[in-house]
Every structure is written in C-alpha cells, then in structure tokens.
Amino acid sequence: MTFKTTALAASALLAGGILALAAPLSASAHIEIDPSSAAAGSYTVLSFALPHGCAGSPTTSISIAIPESIASVTPTVNPLWTVAKTETPLATPITDDDGNSITTRIGGVVYTAITPMADGLRTTFDLSLMLPADAAGTTLEFPVVQTCVTGSTNWDAHTVEGEAEPEHPAPSIAVTAAVASDEHGAAHTDTTAEASSEATDAAASAPDVLARVLGVGGLVVGVVGLVLAITARRKHSA
C-alpha cells in the first residue's frame, strides 16, 4: 500500500471516528431537566444536569430562576456546593393548606461551588416542588445563569416548537394533565396526559436519535475510506 493510499484510509477512519464520538457529546451539551414531563398538581423532584463549564472555564455557581406559578421549592443538598434560596414578594398573598398567609415565594435557588468545578466534569442539582394544578398542557421554563471563573452563560433562550433550538435554551419541563382517581380510588391518567407524555418523550429522544445517526454515518465514512484504499492498492499492484 502506497503512502498516498495509507493516508487516505487513515484520514477516512479518523473522520469517521470523530463523527461517531462527537455526536453523543453534542446531544448532551445543554443544561437539561429530568424528568422532561410531569403531571399538573403533582410533587416532583427536578434534576438539573450541568454537563460542562463556560468555554473550558471551571464553573463557580449556578443560579436557577423559579417560574412565578411555583410558590415553594426545596433544594437538595449537594456536598460540593453551598445552596441558598432567594425570596420574591407575591403580588397577591396566598393561603396554604394550614390557613397561613403566604406573602413571598422562592424566586430562585443559587448553588455555589466550594471549589470551582472543572470543565469536562458533570453534576446535578435537585429541586423538590409541586407543579401548578392549572398548568396542564404548558411548558415551564427555569432560566439558569452559569457563572464561571472566566465568563458566564445565560441558559434562558425560549424554545419555540417547530423552530431550530436556540444555542442556550432555558431548561424546561412539559406539564401533562393531572392524575385523577376513579370511584375505587385507583389513580389513572387520562388519554390527553398520555399523549402529551409520549410527545414529550419523543422530543426528548430526538437528540439521541441524531447522535446515533451521526455515529453510524461516521462509521460508514470510515468503511468507505478503507474500501477505497484497498481498491487503490489492488490497482497499483496490478
């Protein structure tokens, strides 16, 4: 095999490998919420995944803004971060289940790293909360400000269905129909909630599908390059 054909094969295999490896990385580059959907009026724990720093710079803090329709949030302790809640006055006081008047709500949660988290590492931040009972069929966004040793990233862009995803989308969760109980007390979810959940799951899996397609494409490029190199060698030998 000549140097030229060897270089061709190596280049093709390298390109295929890069595509195969880069695809799954690009699919998880955003701050995302798990689960991606939950029922209106339900208590849930939202896990915010932080996958990287700011253009290579270590992360020092994460500030999560809470939607106005959510009054109370309980942050989960992360042993490598301190946590603080910020209160925001309510325009109209509300009454809790015990009859107490509530005049403020949790407007945000800030996690601050005890030691800046290096780029290339991953962590999660969990918030326990109750989704609004009247939010079925909507999407709640939780804008995040990621502050780093050098620079910061605002994950606050609104995602519009049917349009290209913004570079820094706000983490969000789809709110499905509330879970009801039948006359025997058994819980069930109506067909609207199931359909909404299926649609949300399909949307959430889209990046994974893209990653798989790109990965397979990368392998195909490598194989084609190898075949071309072998063919060129045979012609040269002949």
Automatic annotation (TrEMBL):
UniProt keyword annotation of Transmembrane helix present: yes
The organism's place on the tree of life at top rank: Bacteria
Keywords associated with the record: Membrane, Signal, Transmembrane, Transmembrane helix
Pfam families for the chain: DUF1775
Signal peptide as annotated in the record: 1-22
Compositional bias segments (type: Low complexity): 188-200
TM helices/strands, residue ranges: 209-232
Region (Disordered): 181-200
Record domain YncI copper-binding: where: 30-175
Gene3D superfamilies: Uncharacterised protein YcnI-like PF07987, DUF1775
Protein name in the entry: YcnI family protein
Organism: Cryobacterium zhongshanensis
Higher taxonomy: Bacteria, Bacillati, Actinomycetota, Actinomycetes, Micrococcales
